[in-house]
Each structure stands twice: as structure tokens, then as C-alpha cells.
From TrEMBL:
One of its GO terms (cellular component) is nucleus. This is G2E3 ligase. It comes from Sylvia borin. Keywords: Ligase, Metal-binding, Zinc, Zinc-finger. Residues 80-127 form the RING-type domain.
Length: 219
């Protein structure tokens, strides 16, 4: 029955347009009753959409996404706790905060990067609160990794903005080597959507042209 269901889902998705990019094939729908917005997973950040990577894996458009409720920042220091660049002075999709200390503020991209690197040690970078903080971040659409912290592994960890550049497929079929990558086509390098620490050529993992994300076996 899975094959039939899958075909039905693909057929229906082909008829739906992404409200962000207007292209067809939008497979993700806002779970709010009565909302007919659909979108592609890669378009979610541009559309300020939230997908929760736990439980029922619910997705929300910008209008129905969960919102953080935080008190005014005690320190009035409008800098990101992680990168120290300026953040908005209000909580928004791009600017998030810690529900425990009510003081830490950070860019969504910064806290997402920290979550993937910190793994099971993920916690507020300011007050070090863990459980309420993790629950809030999951609710707000931050993906967590089940791996140990990247700084505790044997593998050398480069700068946070250094992109993984190697195919980790069991059998790499690329004639140019595992490190070879092209901007498009069969030798385009895909990174794991959960940890970004492993990659694969599109052809080496038989990824179709309509694929929008890939996860490694560990995640």
C-alpha cells in the first residue's frame, strides 16, 4: 500500500504551487486547519515557514508559525550571543531568544549552526540551560543532531562556516574523486540536512532531480 500512497502523494504535490517561489511540486503543507499554503522545504527560510523536526513533523506557513513569548531583554544589548553581530531589537523569525534566561538573543542561522555542531550537548550559549531551551528550539523549527559535539570527535573540525566537501557514500562513483563537486548534475555534492557533516554526490546515492534534501545514515 505504500507504493500506491506514495504515488498519490507525488501526483497531488505535482499539482500544488509553492507560495514562496510559485513553482509546482510543493510537498509541504501548513498544518493549520483551513490554510491551503504549500511550499518546498528549501523555500521555507525565504517564506519564514517553520517545520518541526520531532513528533508529527508539523509544518507551518509564516502566518501560523509558533511564536516566542519573551520579556524585554534585560541587558538591552542588541547583539547575537553567538556571532556578536547586531540582531533585531524584537523577537522575529530571524531573531530568537532563550526562554530560560530571557536575555540571550541570536540569529536563527547562528543557533541552527550551533545545534548541529553541539549535538547532544546543545544548550543556551549564555545561561547554559538545556531542557526547556531545547524544547523551545525544537518547537520553533531548529533541527537538532543526535551526534556527540563536533569538538569532541576525532575528526578535525574547521571553522563554522567551512562547508563539508567530500562524498561519504559507501561506493563513490565520481570519476573525479570523492572531493570533486559540481554546481549541478550527477556530481553535485549534497550535505546531510540534519548534521551537515557528511555528504554525497547526487548520483552516488541515486538522488532524483526533484529531491530537495538528504540525510546520512547516522542521522
Amino acid at each position: 500500500y505504500l507504493v500506491g500512497d506514495t504515488r498519490g502523494i507525488i501526483t497531488e504535490a505535482a499539482k500544488k504551487a509553492c507560495f514562496v517561489c510559485d513553482k509546482m511540486g510543493a510537498t509541504i503543507a501548513c498544518c493549520q486547519t483551513g490554510c491551503d499554503r504549500t511550499f518546498h522545504l528549501p523555500c521555507a527560510p525565504d517564506g519564514q515557514c517553520v517545520t518541526q523536526y520531532f513528533g508529527a513533523y508539523r509544518s507551518f506557513c509564516w502566518e501560523h508559525s509558533p511564536q516566542q513569548t519573551l520579556q524585554p531583554r534585560p541587558s538591552q544589548d542588541n547583539t547575537c550571543t553567538i556571532c556578536l553581530d547586531t540582531v533585531e531589537d524584537i523577537i522575529s523569525y530571524k531573531t530568537m531568544g532563550c526562554p530560560a534566561c530571557q536575555d540571550a538573543r541570536f540569529h536563527r542561522q547562528c543557533i541552527q549552526r550551533l545545534a548541529l555542531h553541539a549535538g547532544i550537548a546543545f544548550r543556551c550559549p549564555r545561561c547554559l540551560n538545556q531542557e526547556p531551551f531545547m524544547v523551545e528550539m525544537l518547537t520553533m523549527g531548529i533541527r537538532l543532531s543526535k551526534r556527540p559535539p563536533s569538538w569532541e570527535t576525532d575528526q578535525e573540525v574547521g571553522p563554522s562556516d567551512q562547508r563539508h566537501g567530500r562524498c561519504n557514500a559507501a561506493m563513490c562513483l565520481c570519476p573525479g574523486s570523492r572531493e570533486h563537486a559540481e554546481a549541478d548534475g550527477p556530481w553535485q555534492l549534497w550535505l546531510c540536512s540534519s548534521c551537515a557533516a557528511e555528504g554525497t554526490h547526487q548520483h552516488c546515492s541515486s538522488l532524483g532531480t526533484s529531491t530537495y534534501s538528504w540525510e546520512c545514515n547516522t542521522c
